[in-house]
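Re: 6-diazenyl-5-OXO-L-norleucine structure - here you go.
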Amino acid sequence: MNNRFLVLGLFAFTITFNSSPSQAWQTATLERPASVSQQDRLSNTASSKMNMIASVHPLATRAGLDAFAQGGNAVDAAIATALTLGVVDNYNSGIGGGCFILIRNSAGEFFAIDGREMAPSAAHKNLFRDVQGSISGPSRTGALASGVPGALKAYGQAVEKHGRLSLKSALRMGAKAANEGFPITRAYADNLQGTKRQMSRFPATAKIFFREDPSSKQIRPYEFDEKLVQKDLAATYANIAQKGTDWFYHGEFAKATDKWMKENGGVMTFEDVSNYQTVDRTPVRTTYRGYEIVGFPPPSSGGVHVAQVLNILEQFDLKQLYDDEPAKMYHVVAEAMKLAFADRAYWLGDPDFVEVPLGLIDKNYAIELAQRIDLSTVVASQHGTPPNADSEFFERHTTHVAAADADGNWVALTTTVNTTFGAKYVIPGTGVIMNNQMDDFVAIPGKPNAFGLVGGEKNSVEAGKRPLSSMSPTIVLRDGQPILTVGAAGGPKIITEVLWAIINHLDLGMPIGEAIAQPRLHHQWAPTDLLLESNFDPNVVKGLTSRNHSIRRSSGMGICQGISFDPVTKTFTGAYDPRTTGKAMGQ
Ligand code: DON
């Protein structure tokens, strides 16, 4: 039991929720949003024997804790948290976006729910080659940038099949935050400021996120700590609570989307939204030094490449390399990342449309790749040819929620509208920010996407196809029991962030909070630079430069959340990324 949260719990109060146009929907109990305690500022972790939830926003974490308090399990907590993030952190994720949910239930079974967006039925390979560029390009801003959103359907199915409470209950805290408003974080304000030019193109969007400045009387985006109220989104949540996800997929939301698309040059139709389906996939599994790593399969590239890099790294004694000279270990990890990302660009795409060779996570293939790594210098790399690859087939924002409970339910949920505020527009009257996930396809061959990623035919735009993702919700087992879960935001850096959390925790023995806080490096093959966070030890930088890496610095690299479990003390430790606000809580 974490005492400081017990104390916060004493301030619970009761409110009446009435954002639904038709009715006072429900009475909710919510902890008073308290200022962050001193202890919290000093630590990015919390511990509990009962359960744990970690996210990037204290209000969203509290929604998860509330689900636990009402008798919900880790799935209920994760979905309540995700739906609240869709309100208080909706520049990163929301029901206008998509998600991957990896669940391990108390019986030890795994489920991978694919709620990734789908390209509309009128989309085709030349969609973005045919249209002339507008601000940020049509694959990033405006009507064509959006895939059919899948997050809500996946959330609904997760709760229905694996939770103990209801979707209605999971929506409650988010609805309250939308209805009553909440003070926006500095990151939220910065992201609004950074996207104001694109957002102001869409009047219904500007109406929600911009206000008149009290002194200058000018219209401007909301600023840090100002209270943002989202009545339309509150009504949307209330409608879904009352009528279920059908309101979204077969009712008012689908109709409003169809209408807006027709008026704004989009191609998404009522039928596209109605036809959206989640897919139950089989997780990707590998072993790593006696642990079992369970990840999300394609159309995520995360599970495959986390597994592939770990398979390569298993050929090295990382701890020994680190003890010899830390730069040696960082060099090997960077070279392994580079090899994996070269394969990613070439081999990965939606498995419902293209063949993704499973040989990518073959242990012998990893040995072959490991042999290409030179401890003293960088080596130029191209994609390899994994076993059983059939040559006939050649052809910036997110958030992660981690949850676990003492019954053995674990959830790793990564959800996104893609870059900040997605495609920068809301469907009028709904408050729902739509994703710009179409940019995760190879929109124009040879042209890097928002994350500098290039790709091949396998990830080209096709009707009904899901764009390749880097989201990597991961659960790690020892002797069949979960001992760690991690996931992250940051485009392709998600894969490397998850790798660092695993390496730092399992190889270097760091507690989860420290493993996440450590400076990270990232290589994605193209561009060829090695990206290093600015707080790296200068000796490591020197060691990497002497091995001929071309180094670029970055002030912060993604946001990662995780939970570890100590089987001896039977204690969960949840951690959020100190690179941003966040909160981990358990009962
Ligand atoms: O699915 C993907 O890989 C991307 N759409 C994720 C975007 C992301 O993480 C943005 N965060 N900074």
